[in-house]
Amino acid sequence: MTRLATYVSGSGPEVIVALHGVTDNAPSLAGIAQRWNGEYRVVLVDSLGHGLSPRLTEAEAADPVGSCTGAVIEVVEEQAAHAASGKVTLMGHSMGGAIATSVAAARPELVKALVLEDPAWLTETQAAAYKRGAEDEIGRLRAITANPAAAIERALEDHPGRQVRELGAWSTAKGQVDVRLVRTGVVGLVVPRQHLASQIAVPCLLLTGDQPGVLFTDEDIASIVSVGNPLLRTSTIVGAGHSIRRDRPEEFYEAVEAFLREVQNTDGMHAH
Question: Are the beta carbons of 196 and 119 closer than 8 angstroms?
C-alpha cells in the first residue's frame, strides 16, 4: 500500500492516531494534537486522496473506504510499535470514523480504544444522498478554493465558535482533495448500525450532536445502545452539528478526556 502523509507531535508512552473527514486534511485536526501531545504521541493522518497523501488509483476509487482503511492500517501498524501497550487509540471524524471502525474490526489487537465523532455509519438514504450530491460537492470545493478568504468569512458567520487557524487548514484541504474520490460519492460504511455496534471489539466512544446535519437521531442512538455491547458508549453533545469538535470543542474534549481516563484505568480488563 501507499504511504500516507502524517504529522507527528509529542512523545508520550501511548499513541493517538487521528483521522479527518472527507475533503478535510490532517492539519484540520491540529486541535487534537494541541490538546493531547503533552501526554501522548499524536499522529494526524492525511487520508488517501487528501492533503499531501497520494491520489487514488482507478482500482482504489472502486472501493474508497476499503482503500483508505488499508492505507491507515499500515500507519497503525507502524505507530503501534511506539506505544507501551503496542496499541493505538484511534480517533475519527465522519468518513475518518468509518475508516477507524473498519481498522479496529480488521486489526483489533492494534487498537486500544476508538473515539468516533459522528462517524459515517450511513443509512441507505444517507448514502444515496451523498452519491446524488457528489457533483454539487465538487462545485462547492472549487468555490472555496477559488476564494478561500470569503469562504472562511462565511464559515465564521455560520459557525462563530470556530477557530480561524483550523479554518485555514479546512479551506486548504478543499484544494488538495482528489476529485476522483469526491466524485464517487462514497464517504462511509453502509452497514446496518446495530450490526456495526455489535461488532465493536475494543472500548469505543461514539459522539454525535443534536443540531441539523448530524448523522444520528436520538432513535438511532437508542437502537445502537439497545444492542447492549458493554464496550460501546455514546454521548450526544448539545449544540453541536456534524463537526462536533469544531462546534463545541470544550464539551468534545471533556467527554473524550473522561473516556480516555476510563480506558486507561480499566486497561487490561478487556484483554482477549
Answer: no
Amino acid at the residue 89: T
Distance, C-alpha 153 to centroid of its chain: 25
Collapse the DSSP code of 237 into the 3-class scheme (helix H, G, I; strand E, B; otherwise coil) and give the result. Answer: strand
Fold entry, domain 6-123+188-265 = Rossmann fold (3.40.50)
Please, which pLDDT band fits residue 2 given cuts at 50, 70 and 90?
A: low
CB 234 within 8 A of CB 207: yes
Average pLDDT over residues 180-194: 97
Closest CA to 66 of 105, 28, 92: 105
Q: DSSP 3-state assignment of 117?
A: strand
Bridge-partner residues for 206, per DSSP? Answer: 116, 234
Closest CA to 85 of 16, 37, 29, 34: 16
Question: For the chain, how many residues are written?
Answer: 272
Distance CA 130, CA 136 (A): 10
Q: Is the pLDDT of residue 216 over 70?
A: yes
For residues 146-161, give the mean pLDDT: 90
Band of pLDDT at residue 268, cut at 50, 70 and 90: low
- Interhelix angle for 164-176 vs 134-146, to 10°? 120
Q: Provide mean pLDDT across the span 171-193.
A: 97
Residue 149 has a CB neighbour count (10 Å cut-off) of: 9
* β-pair partners for 246: none
Residue ranges of domains in the chain: 6-123+188-265
The answer on pLDDT for 50 being more than 90 is: yes
Nearest CA-CA partner of 56 in 198, 158, 155, 177 = 177
% of the chain at pLDDT higher than 70: 97
